[in-house]
Design a protein that fits this description.
single chain, 71 residues, mainly alpha, 3 helices, 0% strand, rod-shaped
Length: 71
């Protein structure tokens, strides 16, 4: 891959990491419902989406490092 493509992937993964955090919070608050079972499901789903953030940040870091490596 070219260095510019890796930089773009790095930026995309960085943005997706923050989107995962924001999406996790939004899912947790918006899909709670009134029943205990619905609230528990929305909490678990929000946590599941939030767990993607570290993966995206790590990928962003790796793509950035590969983009700056000498050929």
């Amino acid at each position: 891959m070219k260095s510019t493509q890796l930089k773009q992937l790095s930026k995309l993964c960085f943005v997706l990491g923050f989107a995962s955090i924001i999406g996790s919070i939004a899912i947790w608050y918006m899909s709670g419902g009134t029943g205990a079972e619905n609230q528990a499901h929305s909490e678990r789903f929000g946590i599941f989406i939030g767990l993607w953030a570290p993966t995206f940040f790590i990928l962003s870091n790796r793509f950035d490092r590969y983009a700056t490596m000498p050929a």
